[in-house]
UniProtKB/TrEMBL annotation:
<feature type="binding site">
    <location>
        <position position="138"/>
    </location>
    <ligand>
        <name>Zn(2+)</name>
    </ligand>
</feature>
<dbReference type="Pfam" id="PF02748">
    <property type="entry name" value="PyrI_C"/>
</dbReference>
<feature type="binding site">
    <location>
        <position position="107"/>
    </location>
    <ligand>
        <name>Zn(2+)</name>
    </ligand>
</feature>
<feature type="domain" description="Aspartate carbamoyltransferase regulatory subunit N-terminal">
    <location>
        <begin position="5"/>
        <end position="96"/>
    </location>
</feature>
<dbReference type="InterPro" id="IPR002801">
    <property type="entry name" value="Asp_carbamoylTrfase_reg"/>
</dbReference>
<keyword id="KW-0479">Metal-binding</keyword>
<dbReference type="Pfam" id="PF01948">
    <property type="entry name" value="PyrI"/>
</dbReference>
<protein>
    <recommendedName>
        <fullName>Aspartate carbamoyltransferase regulatory chain</fullName>
    </recommendedName>
</protein>
<keyword id="KW-0665">Pyrimidine biosynthesis</keyword>
<feature type="binding site">
    <location>
        <position position="135"/>
    </location>
    <ligand>
        <name>Zn(2+)</name>
    </ligand>
</feature>
<dbReference type="InterPro" id="IPR020542">
    <property type="entry name" value="Asp_carbamoyltrfase_reg_C"/>
</dbReference>
<comment type="subunit">
    <text>Contains catalytic and regulatory chains.</text>
</comment>
<comment type="similarity">
    <text>Belongs to the PyrI family.</text>
</comment>
<feature type="binding site">
    <location>
        <position position="112"/>
    </location>
    <ligand>
        <name>Zn(2+)</name>
    </ligand>
</feature>
<comment type="function">
    <text>Involved in allosteric regulation of aspartate carbamoyltransferase.</text>
</comment>
<dbReference type="InterPro" id="IPR036792">
    <property type="entry name" value="Asp_carbatrfase_reg_C_sf"/>
</dbReference>
<keyword id="KW-0862">Zinc</keyword>
């Protein structure tokens, strides 16, 4: 099998692969991945071998944590994380949706008390055909497209 390197290999760090095309830049912003002086390489609209395209992010000298990987699943349910050490993939895993997410998303319901109280937002995540997030405070459920942070 011929292997094509889409983006230059890194010595140490993390590669987030199989991000749906168009989500790569949002992921960088959401996780404030650019708040670092480490080298970041982002590939947009890369061919997947099939009929679709994907985005890919490489961050040097940074290990994506399990919590970050789970939050990533909200943007990119099919993403895989590769942890690289000395040019080798030492760990490869798929992101998994967390059961809940706290503090990082604002409730789309403008009447929700979470906007007026000094509390961290909290959503429970349910998935049937589509991911839904249920607010702990107003108990309303929202698709990911309701969140400006995710869409
Ligand atoms: Zn709410």
């Amino acid at each position: 099998m011929k292997k094509k390197l889409e983006v230059q290999a890194i010595e140490n760090g993390s590669v987030i692969d199989h991000i749906a095309a168009g989500k790569g830049v949002k992921i960088l912003k959401f996780f404030q991945l650019t708040d670092t002086n480490q080298k970041i390489t982002i590939g947009l609209n890369l061919p997947t071998g099939g009929s679709t395209t994907k985005d890919l992010i490489k961050i040097e000298n940074t290990q994506i944590t399990g919590v970050q990987a789970n939050q990533l699943a909200l943007f990119a349910p099919d993403a895989t994380i590769n942890l690289i050490d000395d040019y080798d993939v030492v760990k490869k895993f798929k992101v998994e949706l967390p059961e809940a997410i706290s503090g990082v998303l604002a409730c789309p319901n403008s009447n929700c008390i979470s906007h007026n109280e000094p509390v961290d937002s909290l959503f429970y995540i349910k998935q049937k055909q589509q991911i839904k997030l249920k607010c702990h405070y107003c108990e309303k459920s929202f698709a990911t497209s309701f969140f400006k942070e995710l869409d």
